[in-house]
Structures are given as structure tokens and as C-alpha cells.
Amino acid sequence: MYRRSKSTTSRCFHRVLRSVIALESLYIQQPQGDVVPKEIQEKKRFFPYFKNCVGAIDGTYVRVKVPNRDAPRYRCRKGYPTINVLVACSFDLKSMYVLTGWEGTASDSRILKNALNRDDKLLIPNGRYYLVDAGLPHSTILMAPYRGVRYHLKEYSTRAPQNAKELFNLRHASLRNAIERAFGVLKRRFPIIRSTQEPFYSCETQSDIFSACCILHNFLIVEDRDKDLEDEVLQEVLSAPTEEVRHNSSGAREGNSMAEQLRNSIANQMWTNYLLNPNNEINMST
């Protein structure tokens, strides 16, 4: 009977994990902002309105194992310990920035503030911005939807936009769902970060595992893209029940005047073009 000890298995696992993470700089790269993403440039619904947008940002929960004394800090609204991972993704679903390790009780806005000020910080090119949900602050570098206005795609399936703000929110949601699809594909592909069962590894190791999965995810998008999987996730996103803010929205606030002027200008341009276009159909699938 041939067996390998648990210590040997653990040692080899961590050796491979470290090796994958060492590839991070090759496969997880932040945008330079010198080109307009083709997902925006090739669609009249988004171009030229979102031509300065480089991607979308959101957080997701990952189950972790922590000592009982630390459990309250990590226990999210789902009732079990998690870490809240902040991810910035491109519109072709690649991860461009990953910040792991924050306890599940931390709000997205708090984590984002840290991401913008740490040594390995989130870099946003001058004059560019990311799309975020209503749980994060609206600013010149983060474009949030109008609050108190219909937002989720499912809400527009039976009634078309009625004004400029609703049309803006619809287009915003149609573009920002890239981050939701990226999370869906990532977790469907790697059940180790999707499971709600307590993992075998420590919180630190589970954080490293998420980073490694993002690296492998980016590699697979380039080398072996699974369109069927992406289509399945897209249908799940479109049929998902509406929810105002999935994460803790404490700290969210209205944008500064410059950011508000930009958002209002984009919304008015969209609405004008929408009214002048006789074939202004609502296509949520793209």
C-alpha cells in the first residue's frame, strides 16, 4: 500500500501555490488608459459615452477558516466567516487588480479606500474611471449609478427607460455587469473559492488561493476561453433577483460637483440620441 504523508501533500501544494502567485505581474496587469476597450468602442450603446471607462470594480465574499475569537470580525451577512475581496476587471472579464484578506464585515468603500492608498495600490489613469455600484462613492475616478432610480437589468425587461437618468442606469448596469460575470465564471471554474463549506486552509492561504485562481482565470481567457460557460453565467446574471446593494454600503455618498456634471452630461447625451434614434431597442443580453 503506497501513501503520501499529509505534510508532503501540504508542502507540494504550497510550493505550487507560490509558483502560480509569482506569475501575478505577467497575468494581472492594470490598465494604461491609452486605448478604448473594444467592448465599448464597438457598441453605439456605450460609445462615446463611456469612452474613458477602463473597467468595473466590486467585492465578493469567500468562505474562510478563522479561530473562534476572530469569527465575529469575519462573519458576513450570510452567517459564516468570509473575507471580502475587492476586484477590478476589464470588460473581457480579466482581473486587473485583486485585493484579498479583508474581513467579511469590512465595507466595500473601506476596502477601496485602502486599495487607493496602499503601496501596491489600485492605479487609475488620469482622466479615466471605473464603474461601481451604488454601495461605493461617486467621484471623478469612480462612476456610480443614480441612486433612487431603477438600475438592475431585470427592472427594464418590462418597461423601457422613461428619462435620461433611467437610460444612463440601464447602460451603466449593462456595462458594469462584466464584474458580476467575471465573478460567476471564476467561481464556477474554481469551486474551492465558491464553496460555503469551511475550507481546510487558513485565512491567509485562502486569500492566496483566490489570487492564484484569478491568475489562472486570466490565463485561460487567453489560451482556452470557454464561451459556453460565460453564456451560462450571463443568463444567471440577467435572471438574478434584484437587490439594491449586495454589500455593506456604509460610507457611500453622492459625488462631487465635477463628477456629477460629467454623469449628467453623459446621461443627457444618451437620452438625446435615444430619442432621435427610431430603433432604440433595449437589448440587455449585450
UniProtKB/TrEMBL annotation:
Transposase-derived protein that may have nuclease activity. Does not have transposase activity. Keywords: Cytoplasm, Hydrolase, Metal-binding, Nuclease, Nucleus. This is Putative nuclease HARBI1. Signal peptide: none annotated. Transmembrane segments: none annotated. GO terms for molecular function: hydrolase activity; metal ion binding; nuclease activity. GO terms for cellular component: cytoplasm; nucleus.
